[in-house]
Amino acid sequence: MERQIDLNEISDGKLYGLDDMVRADCAGCAGCSACCKGMGSSVVLDPYDVHRLVTGTGIGFEALLQKHLELNVVDGVILPNLRMAGDDEACAFLNEEGRCSVHAHRPGICRIFPLGRLYEDRSFQYILQVHECKKGNRSKVKVKKWIDTPDAKNYDKYVARWHYFLKDLQRIAREDEEGTVAKTVSMYVLRTFYLTPYNAGADVFREIETRIQTAERLFAIG
Ligand code: SF4
Ligand code: SF4
Description:
The chain is α+β, with helices and mostly antiparallel strands. It has one domain. It is 39% helix and 17% strand. Helix 6 runs antiparallel to helix 7. The longest helix has 24 residues, at 152-175. The protein starts with 6 loop residues before the first helix and ends with a helix. One iron/sulfur cluster binds at residues 36, 82, 91, 93-94, 100, 102, 106-107, 110.
């Protein structure tokens, strides 16, 4: 979820890159699952998140929507997010032991927490959110290690690319007063980037990039 923020209020005021050390390591969370509850619809998934979940769990996107995910409008475009359910508003992937049942395939926002992303100039840097994690005495860890994602450099490039592509689509959707373009954009995004599988063993970032370029031509953006 994107927010307008005062950096000094929510973070330690520093910006971090993949090779920087940051005080984010909560040592396996030790019985805490606070950030897996009560998040509303804020944990929005990008196409790579869904690709990881689908290939990791063997459950298709439409089947995941039955229980684990839901769809919501984000700035005019329909996108999937983690579903929070039950009295404690827990993520549907949180198991009875209070652990993530899809830890190896968890979405990007979960991986970087309590880090956040500050987007600027078609790129982003990481920030350390100081009021989010319940564990006080976190230790230092390299950002690249903390986000636990292979090919981290290309992953970060993809994250920024997707973010700004989506912003362009959201602008088109918002400008459409009748809502027909917004609906077309949403259906296109869901079908092209989330429902249509990526080739097994292929470079997923490259495949997403190809689909982005096709969409940019179609919607005359970029
Ligand atoms: S996917 Fe896993 S880490 Fe992310 S909120 Fe759900 S249970 Fe927590
Ligand atoms: S709040 Fe911090 S310690 Fe608790 S589950 Fe989230 S990351 Fe782990």
